[in-house]
# Entry
Amino acid sequence: MVLSKKKRAVVTGGAGFLGSHLCEELLKRDLHVTCVDNLSSGRFENVSHIEKLPEFEFVEHDVIDPLPDLKADYVFNLACPASPGLYQADPLRTAKTAAFGTLNALELARANGAQYLQASTSEIYGDPEIHPQVEGYWGNVSSTGPRACYDEGKRFGEALCFDFRRVYDLEIKVVRIFNTYGPRMQAEDGRVVSNFIVQALQGMPITIYGDGSQTRSFCFVSDLVSAMLAVSDTPSGVLGPFNIGNPEEVTVLELAKIIQQEIGLPENLVFKDKAVDDPRRRRPDISKVRAATGWQPEVPLSQGIAETIAYFRGELARLEVPAITAVAE
Ligand code: NAD
Ligand code: UDP
# Structure
C-alpha cells in the first residue's frame, strides 16, 4: 500500500449526526478521515455514502477503551450521546464515554503530536443565570440530577483538555456547541427538533414538556461544522473555549408553531410534565469565535427548518411510516 501524504483526521463519533457531516467536510478538504464509532447513538448509514472512498476508513470501537494505534494530524472528539433521553438511558455509560473517551482521544492526539478538538456543549452552563451565555461564565449545574452524567462529564472533559495542554503542551481547541439540528438527526433521537417535525409530519400533536416558555437557540448543521473547522484553523495556542451556535433564540412553543406552519398544519399541541433540571433559557454569545475566526451562522431558522422537514419526509417514506402529504384545511 502506498502511504498517503494527506493529512489525517480521526473523528470519534463520526457516524453520528454532527460527526458524519464533519467527516464529509474533512474529505472535501482533501484529508484522510478515520471515523471511530461504536454505533450506539449513531448509525452506519450516515457514512455509508463515503464508505468506499479510499480516503475514508471506518473503525468500530468503543472510546471507553483505549483507541487503536491510529495515525492522526487532527483528532476531533465527538463520541458521546447528545440527546437527553439517550444520555440519561445509560448514565454510567455516558459518564464513562465523556470521561474515559475524552482521555483516550487526548492520548491518541498526544501520541501523534496532533491537534485535538473537543466537542463540548452549552450544557456545561447548566440552567444559566447569565444570559446570553459568555465563555467566562462558570455555569449553574446540578451535580446530582439526571443530566449530571452528561453535563459534569463534559465539564470534566474540558478540564482534561486544559490539563493536557498544561502538562504536555498538547495543541487543544475546545468548542461549546449549542443546540444544532438538520438532516441525519434520527427520527427516534428524542431531541426537540426531530420530535416536533416527526410528530407533525405524522399528524400527531406536538409534545411540549412544561409550558413551552423555555428557550433554545438553534443552529443549522452546515453552519456548525463550518464553525468547528474555523476554530480548527485558528493559530496554534488559540485554545478557546468558544461558544458555537446560532444566537437566534425562540421559545419551545414558538418552535412548535414554526414547524406546524411550515408543514401547513393547524396548531395541535399536547402539554407534558417539564423535564427535570431543564434549562429555562439558552443563547450563545458568539462574539469570541466571531472575533477569532470571522465565522458567523448563515442559515436562518426558517430555512433550516424547511430543509430538515424535507429530510424527515424522505426518512419517513424510507421507513414506510405514514406521513401527512396534504396540507390540512
Ligand atoms: P449523536 O448521538 O448523533 O453522535 C454521537 C456519536 O458518538 C454517535 O455516532 C455514537 O454512536 C457515538 N458514540 C457514543 N458513545 C460512544 C462510545 N462510547 N464509543 C464510540 N462512539 C460512541 O450526537 P451529535 O448530535 O452528533 O453530537 C456529537 C457531539 O457533539 C457529542 O459529543 C455532543 O455532546 C456534542 N454536542 C452536540 C450538540 C447538538 O445539538 N447536536 C450540542 C452540544 C454538544
Ligand atoms: N422538548 C419538548 N418536547 C419534546 C422534546 C423536547 O418540549 O418532545 C423540550 C425540552 O424539554 C427542552 C427543549 O425542548 O426544554 C430542548 O430539548 P432537547 O432534548 O432538544 O435538548 P436540550 O437543549 O434540553 O439538551
Summary: The longest helix spans residues 91-112. The pocket of nicotinamide-adenine-dinucleotide (ligand 1) is lined by residues 13, 15-19, 37-42, 62-64, 78-82, 97, 101, 119, 121, 177, 179-180 (CB under 6 Å). Residues 66 and 201 are 42 Å apart (CA to CA).
